[in-house]
Amino acid sequence: MHEDLTPMLYGVMAAIQEVPGSGQRQLASRLGVDAVTLGQMIEFLERKSLVKREIDPNDRRARQLYLTRRGMDLRLRLRPSLLAAQERILAPLAKAERTALLDMLARVIEANDSYARPGHGRRKPRRRTDLPIDGIGRRQ
Question: Which of 57, 51, 3, 2 is nearest to 27 (CA)?
């Protein structure tokens, strides 16, 4: 992608444009990424002058996110090539099949949303008594 943008960064920009003034935490939750990772992505987009953060007038600790003019222009420039790529990928399917596929994928993603949340599925930390003593799994 142009401007060193990954598909995820483009998605972050799209989500910001969709709901201008979103808070970072709300956006992280909506996208299913942890706040630290989103913060790093926002910093990258800010350095590229594609996104700007403004202090939330209702909570001075929070930041609201907006696309800059440059960010909006870049999204508009990239959109035709992204739509063309999507068209190439879905070309083997009839229009009704495309609609059905996208609907089914959306339902699968929504139904499994909790699995994408940070921390889900991680192993619980082992207690000290659970650790092997001799280094190969045997307690002495």
Answer: 51
